[in-house]
Automatic annotation (TrEMBL):
Segments forming domain SET: 21-250
Annotated InterPro entries: SET_dom, SET_dom_sf, SETD3_SETD6_MTase, SETD4_SET
Name under which the protein is recorded: SET domain-containing protein
Taxonomic lineage from the root: Eukaryota, Metazoa, Ecdysozoa, Nematoda, Chromadorea
PROSITE patterns, A to Z: SET
Organism of origin: Diploscapter pachys
Secretion signal, residue range per the UniProt entry: none
Amino acid sequence: MQTDDVCEFLDWCRTQKIEFDGLELIYVQGAGYGLVAKRDFQSEEPVIKLPQKCLITAGQVVEIPKYKELVGNLRYFYFFFEKIKSFSTLPSPFEMLVLFFALEEPQTSTYGPYLKMLPKDFSTPIYEGIEFPESDLPDSVLSFWRQQRQELKVISEKVESLRPKYSISKERLLWAWHIVNTRCIFVENRPNKFIDQTHGDTIAIIPFVDMLNHSTNAQGLALLDKRSSTYMVKAQRFILQDSEVFVCYGPHTNARLYIEYGFKLPDNPYAKVIVNHDLFFELAEECGISLSEKRRDIIRRADLPW
Ligand SMILES: C[S@@+](CC[C@H](N)C(=O)[O-])C[C@H]1O[C@@H](n2cnc3c(N)ncnc32)[C@H](O)[C@@H]1O
């Protein structure tokens, strides 16, 4: 039985010309919503198709008058010779999308039926306020962990500068930041002069497509066909009726999946621990292999063991 929210969302998707015949949106225990094949799909067959204009991108958001005005109000404060100075700054594509989700309301937004389907909370360490001593984190995710916290800090400061005209609570900002962080997809967008292009503009949120969960053994592949301005998810191989359709979010370790998305995979083929030289020497000692300084130096210079 589908809830009213699900029915309203699916009707909304159809009015947006999102094609998803043969798929069912279901609630998957432990993963939120997910998409299941209600018939077999042949390899190369499109599973979802939608017009490019359905993509929520920073460039598209900033063309909405209320967001264009907001961008004009974004000022970034900094201390200089003990005086507070401020300068206008353009939002990055990521920040613009976060502001969109922080300010749209389901009751008034044209995206209302979609917004109602979004998760209410997250199980990431940042959302749950879990702090780790950095020494507990594997090297493979340390810089990612720092970068995520820094991004959140920077956008929080920018949002502060929008007060009192726009008042976004810490909780709402954290929620919106997670919506974008857990759901955005790589797409190359056209530059927009109101969006900071320092690192290009390569993200979009795609309603309905963002209901696909992650697997390292995904059968779905998402791509934009620029010639027909159509975004689609294609079957990379045969998809059996009644199986959940997955895409792969990337070759991520469990530490990365947990920090970014709030889940781990029991049998993750990308599980890895980076062994730096100091740890490698320590492990060698523990195995009874004594390494002279000269040998250690050779190993370091040869960049072994990886
Ligand atoms: C792009 S959304 C996918 C749709 C999402 N399940 C929903 O209900 O909106 C990404 C989020 O789905 C969940 N997710 C995706 N793949 C998962 C998996 N294999 N196991 C558990 N949770 C998963 C995580 O909460 C992740 O942050």
